[in-house]
User: Which sequence fits this backbone?
């Protein structure tokens, strides 16, 4: 009987844990009219995103020089960190967008001549 109860408890914990997992969509593409090019991005969606009708705050998580939109997914472990923060109540459920600024211009700023408008892209 004790083994059965332990198995049921383990099963229930597994279900509860898996139900509280967000997801990351990697290598998504958006056509930018401002930049006149396609831009890649990754996005974290909170655990209840697909079932909820609510609106979510959006956090733009920017990578450093030499990296791209996959850096926070592969090395920063955005999925694990965001899921844990939401589960523990230290963060509200949110959408996290990780854009790729790895272009010939490199960076998130508009250029001084107004020909490269990456800030406006946001």
Assistant:
């Amino acid at each position: 009987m004790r083994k059965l109860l332990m198995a049921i408890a383990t099963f229930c914990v597994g279900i509860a844990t898996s139900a509280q997992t967000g997801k990351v969509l990697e290598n998504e593409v958006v056509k930018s009219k401002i930049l006149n090019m396609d831009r890649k991005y990754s996005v974290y969606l909170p655990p209840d995103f697909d079932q909820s009708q609510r609106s979510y705050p959006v956090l733009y998580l920017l990578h450093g020089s030499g990296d791209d939109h996959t850096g926070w997914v592969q090395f920063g472990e955005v999925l694990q960190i965001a899921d844990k923060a939401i589960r523990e109540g230290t963060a509200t459920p949110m959408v996290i967008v990780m854009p790729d600024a790895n272009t010939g211009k490199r960076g998130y700023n508009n250029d001084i001549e107004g020909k490269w408008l990456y800030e406006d892209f946001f």
